[in-house]
Every structure is written in structure tokens, then in C-alpha cells.
Amino acid sequence: MIRFENVEKWFGPLQVLADVSGEVRRGEVKVLVGPSGSGKSTLIRTVTRLERIQGGRVLVGGADIAARGLDINRLRQRVGFVFQAYNLFPHLSALGNITLGLTKLRRMSRAAARERAMEELARVGLTEKANEMPGMLSGGQRQRVAIARSLAMDPEVMLFDEPTSALDPEMVGEVLVAMKRLAAGGMTMICVTHEIGFAREVADEIWFMEAGKVIERGRPAELASASAHPRLAGFLHMVGHHR
Ligand SMILES: Nc1ncnc2c1ncn2[C@@H]1O[C@H](COP(=O)(O)OP(=O)(O)OP(=O)(O)O)[C@@H](O)[C@H]1O
Ligand SMILES: [Mg+2]
User: Fold this and answer.
1) What value does the mean pLDDT of the chain take?
2) How far apart are the CA of 43 and the centre of ligand 1, in A?
């Protein structure tokens, strides 16, 4: 579904992705971890061409996303993206945030868009908040609206960049529940998150990045073995102690 082939990315003189290769098959969940500045956000942003790359290739569904003639807007509809900071439109209700893409990009009728949006809100447990403005929602509720908005576009892949890290602790769980449901339903996902419990439960594989490279990767069950993945084990230990 997604393939990174020897991806290289520079910001001026600074190399932030160095020969990154890897594959995410349909229905798989990969979790990306690593220190701040290691390139996690940059890597997932390459998938929808929010970041251009200078070497290698990124393929989505077998197609090179840098190919001439690729419809970038179509690609961005196929790949849902949920960021750390909720990027809801503040002047639209929860419902309005979801119907916007459906009526404008999918050319759905208002009634059909509304129906679809209500289905997605129900999936994330927010039926009763449909008409609230984002400012009246909690952080966790806003993130769930953002997830529902992405899902309404029927993405083939969902990317998450630390979707819970800006939330108060008591709201983290509700967002993780929505993500776990999605994973259980077979969605292909790449998640940057330091929620190690989530990673253990849901990830098919954890990728550990450092200085622009994926330096270790393994199944959650293998992580118990510090000898197989010493740097990842060390990092997880440290993260665990700081929360
Ligand atoms: N627009 C930019 N211009 C210049 N440098 C950038 C830009 N965006 C990111 N970088 C640099 O690229 C490197 C990788 O950043 P990135 O945001 O991918 O890291 P990260 O692993 O997501 O970190 P964090 O855990 O803090 O979110 C960092 O050194 C960062 O300073
Ligand atoms: Mg980041």
C-alpha cells in the first residue's frame, strides 16, 4: 500500500531522511517512534507530498507519488492525515467540518453528505456533538471529529502524527479507542506516537528512527528482547519513565 524506497530529504544543508526504505502492506499498522527531530513527521508527510523528497521514491498503491500527471488532490483524499494540533475549521460545526469535503470534493448532495457525516460521528461516539462548534469541544472530541472527517472521505490509508500528544491525559484514551477500532477494522495505518501501550496492542511493527534513519524495526512482541533491539528498548524504557 505504501512503499518507501531509499528516501532522502534535505532541508538546506540538513539531511533529515537518509536512505529510508520500508513497506506498509494493506491492513497493516506501523508505529513510528524515535527522539524529537529524528524525522518521523517528515517521513509521513512525504506520503501525501506535504514534503518533497530529493532522492528515492514513495509509492502509494503502487504509484510513484512524484509522477508527472499524478492528481495530488485525489491522492490526498485517498490518504487521511490527522495531526497533533486539531486542524478543524473553527467557524464550522463538527458536522460542517465533515460535510465540507464531501460536498466540495466529492460533489455529494448536502443531504447525502449530512447522512454520511452523521454516520462517521456516530462511529467516534459524537452524535450528540454534531452541531457544536470546535471551540465548544474538548481536545479529545476535536481529535475524534478530525478522525471522522478523514474517514468520511473513504481513505485507503490513515496517517497519524502524534494525535494524542497535545491532549490532557484523561482525553488520550478516547482517541486511542477510535484508532484501535479503525485498526481492528482493517485500516492501513502509519502512526507516529509514543503511546507504547497502543503500539504493543495494535502495531504490526514498530519502526525506530534516529537522525533520519529507521535504525531498528520489530514486532511489539520482540521488543521485550532488549538484546535484539537495544536502541529501541532503551528509548522505550526512557519514554516509559518520563510519562
Ligand atoms: N520546514 C523545515 N525547515 C527546516 N528544517 C526542518 C523543517 N521541518 C523539519 N525540519 C527539521 O527536520 C528534522 C526532522 O524533523 P521532524 O519534524 O520530522 O522530526 P520528528 O521526529 O517528527 O520530531 P518530533 O518528535 O519533535 O515531532 C529536524 O531536525 C527539524 O528541525
Ligand atoms: Mg514530529
Assistant:
1) 92
2) 10
pLDDT of 87:
85
Beta-carbon contacts of residue 230 (< 8 Å; ≥ 6 apart): none
Tell me which CATH code domain 2-242 carries.
3.40.50.300
Ligand 2: distance of its center to the CA of 68 in Å?
28
When pLDDT is cut at 50, 70 and 90, the band that residue 86 belongs to is confident
Q: Is 42 in the pocket of ligand 1 (CB under 6 A)?
A: yes
Q: Residue holding cell 524504557? A: 237
Report which secondary-structure segment, H or E, holds 113: helix 110-123
Secondary structure (DSSP) of 155-199: -SEEEEESTTTTS-HHHHHHHHHHHHHHHHTT-EEEEE---HHHH
Q: What is the domain partition of the chain in residue ranges?
A: 2-242
Asked if the model's pLDDT at residue 8 lies above 70, the reply is yes
* Residue 140 CA from chain centroid, whole number: 16
